[in-house]
Amino acid sequence: xxxxxxxxxxxxxxxxxxxxxxxxxxxxxxxxxxxxxxxxxxxxxxxxxxxxxxxxxxxxxxxxxxxxxxxxxxxxxxxxxxxxxxxxxxxxxxxxxxxxxxxxxxxxxxxxxxxxxxxxxxxxxxxxxxxxxxxxxxxxxxxxxxxxxxxxxxxxxxxxxxxxxxxxxxxxxxxx
Length: 176
Fold this sequence. Notes:
Structural class: alpha+beta
Shape: rod-shaped
CATH class of the domain at 72-175: Alpha Beta
Strand order of the largest sheet: 1-4-2-3
Distance between the termini: 127 Å
Number of strands: 4
Radius of gyration: 43 Å
Number of helices: 4
CATH architecture of the domain at 72-175: 2-Layer Sandwich
Largest sheet: 4 strands, mixed
């Protein structure tokens, strides 16, 4: 029996030693992991878009679709006020002239045949002046713009009815 107690005490001693070794109170210090290397974007940059073509083969201004910009602006009877549509087109002309400072325009003011010669010359001047004023207020240099009035002297349509008169009440941009 003493032998059994001795063995039992021996096994109990080994078990106690293992328990004490397994419950160590101070864990080994753990080093923090190194910071991961920074992530570098490898996405290629977007392709560089060419700016839209601003003129045709002859050097005339075109819209974003490549269509020639209108150069004729029509007015109501006895008026020199530009429409919203005309202002939008003139804005594209202004951008073109700002982008190409070596280009310039002459603005021709025209009228229908009604009214005196003097009155129509003055009205044609107001019409060309309305276009010139818009262009210069949109950043086009005054040295790029000239205006002239032809009154009723150069009709687009030689007729003598409202249809012809409406085509003659205009301002035209002539690029140089």
